[in-house]
Amino acid sequence: MSGRTNKLKIKLELLGHTNVKVRWEPAGSATEMCGCSGGYVFESDQDSYGLGYSFLEAMRTVENSERVTSE
User: Fold this and answer.
1) At residue 49, what are phi and psi to the nearest 5 degrees?
2) pTM of the prediction?
3) pLDDT (tens digit, 9 = 90+) per residue, 4-21?
4) Residue 69 within any structural domain of the chain
5) Backbone torsion region of residue 34, taken as left when φ is above 0, otherwise alpha when ψ lies between -120 and 50, otherwise beta
6) In total, how many domains does the chain have?
7) Residue 24: count of CB within 10 angstroms of its CB
């Protein structure tokens, strides 16, 4: 895991996600919606979605998340 994906993983865990996996995929053409694929993607026991194409965009997505840390 790179330093950037590790930073995103830690932020997501602070938001209450468990079993977090973050990866970066090279940008390319998507097969279904004719947009782009790739970028930073995360999976956890609670959720799975793309965070953004750049590290800064991914960090903003995580920091602006409204997920509560305790339920």
Assistant:
1) -170, 170
2) 0.74
3) 899 999 999 988 899 999
4) no
5) left
6) 1
7) 18
